[in-house]
Design brief:
By secondary structure, this protein is α/β, with parallel strands linked by helices. The chain has a domain of 201 residues: Rossmann fold (3-Layer(aba) Sandwich). The protein is built from 15 helices and 13 strands. The strands form 3 sheets. A 6-stranded mixed beta sheet has the order 4-5-13-10-11-12, with helices on both faces. A 4-stranded parallel beta sheet has the order 8-7-6-9, sandwiched between helices. Strands 2-1-3 form a 3-stranded antiparallel beta sheet. Helix 3 links the parallel strand 6 and strand 7. Helix 7 packs across helix 8. The chain starts with a strand and ends with a helix.
């Protein structure tokens, strides 16, 4: 393996790679912290990645990942487009807004980067069973990459999880087990990890510290691709939907690596779009650990619906000079519609949260007109079409005559002006 060990994000204590399913034992009394991968002298790079590299996945930068490309379990993840969002930029009065469209990954979400890195590492370490606790994207990715590796995968979910994603998990051959409560899924997964040696790709104990650090390394590749797409310049801001901050710490680590090698001259400010305000409360009250918050309603952005965030997320926001923004379901659904109808990007609700956060920061003047911004659009709206369908309502129905079609068009200003003759 390229990885030589693990290190606590909070206190810096060193641990072996075999402790990838643990938090830092030394920090449990003061505030639980995730571990991160260290590479020792193995992480070396003197040149930027050539844009013409013939490796059609994130593994073309395998020197910065836990295992070498030859050992990777891959479905061609990564190398997703960085798309200009001119309608968003015009609406908010910002010169440059881009969307990193992670829906182009093999299973339709950014979680494929984590799953590829985690399951490649699991196989290299001799693991026999992959296990995940997931409401959707993480479980689907784990199932797909476990299938690719020829390994059994168990996914614990909970009653009420979005049907399309559960179907996706099962289609890849995973054993999907629904639990009565959300707490039960972590309890059962912990039994499997501690007593049976299953390899976890997701959090499974409370308070959560984040996902498996060997998997989080996959998110570094998002930062590399953003810089490469912008000719090794970096945006002023990166805005992400954040639950436990896995992509946040992964991207930040990627930017820091490039900065240390002189590939880039600065790192962006990182913004966490969240629902219930755990990071915001920690920032506002100068807390060392994000607190648990009330859950006054169940959000449509299920994948970022945790009431308590993590130290790793808080640490990145602070170090980058960024911030956290709580967004509402109303704003998320409004931006989901706008991204689809004006940019041609159908994002799942959580993936539209960064646009809602950007609007808030622009309105308060935190983000200026001359700034450049990248939104991490984490997953496809096809992951949760039921939510969109409820918002859109019933489909228009024509009768037997074409006049009924014209009447339908007359009722919608957009189509009446474009499709009907002037009167």
């Amino acid at each position: 393996m390229n990885a030589t060990g693990l290190q606590c994000l909070r206190c810096g204590a060193q641990y072996p790679v075999s402790m990838n399913s643990s938090d830092c034992p030394r920090c449990r009394d003061t505030g639980r912290s995730n571990l991160t991968v260290v590479y020792g002298d193995k992480l070396r790079s003197a040149h930027r990645i050539p844009a013409t590299s013939d490796r059609a996945s994130m593994w073309r930068i395998d020197a910065m990942l836990p295992v070498a490309c030859a050992e990777a379990v891959t479905l061609g993840e990564g190398r997703t487009p960085l798309l200009p969002l001119p309608s968003v930029a015009s609406k908010l009065g910002i010169d440059a807004v881009y969307g990193k469209d992670e829906s182009r990954n093999p299973t339709g979400s950014f979680k494929d980067r984590l799953a590829s890195s985690a399951i490649s590492s699991a196989r290299a370490l001799g693991a026999r069973v992959i296990a995940s606790s997931s409401s959707g994207n993480a479980g689907a990715s784990a199932a797909a990459y476990a299938a690719r590796a020829g390994m059994p995968c168990i996914v614990f979910t909970f009653e009420g999880t979005v049907g399309a994603m559960v179907t996706q998990m099962r289609a890849y051959g995973a054993m999907v087990i629904s639990t009565r409560t959300k707490a039960d899924r972590w309890k059962f997964l912990e039994h499997g990890v501690r007593e049976l040696g299953w390899f976890p790709t997701s959090p499974f104990f409370s308070p959560a510290v984040g996902s498996n650090p060997l998997g989080i390394e996959g998110y570094k590749t998002i930062a590399y691709e953003i810089a490469e797409s912008l000719d090794w310049r970096v945006p002023d801001w990166c805005v992400l939907p954040v639950c436990y901050g896995d992509a946040l710490i992964g991207m930040w680590k990627g930017f820091q690596e490039m900065l240390s090698w002189g590939w880039i001259d600065r790192a962006p400010r990182m913004v966490a779009a969240e629902i219930y305000g755990s990071l915001g409360a920690a920032l506002n009250n100068k807390l060392s650990t994000p607190p648990a918050m009330p859950r006054p309603y169940d959000t449509v952005a299920v994948s970022i619906g945790a009431v308590q965030s993590t130290y790793q997320a808080l640490d990145v926001v602070r170090k980058s000079g960024g911030t956290a923004v709580s967004v509402t379901d109303q704003d998320i659904l409004r931006w989901q519609e706008r991204l689809a109808t004006q940019e041609g990007i159908y994002a799942e609700p959580a993936a539209a949260a960064p646009a809602a956060a950007l609007e808030h920061l622009r309105r308060q003047g935190t983000i200026r007109p001359a700034d450049s911004v990248v939104l991490l659009l984490t997953a496809s709206g096809l992951k949760d079409p039921e939510t969109t369908s409820r918002v859109l309502g019933e489909i228009s129905r024509a009768q037997a005559d074409f006049q009924s079609v014209l009447r339908i068009l007359e009722e919608d200003e957009r189509f009446a002006a474009a499709c009907l003759p002037a009167t």
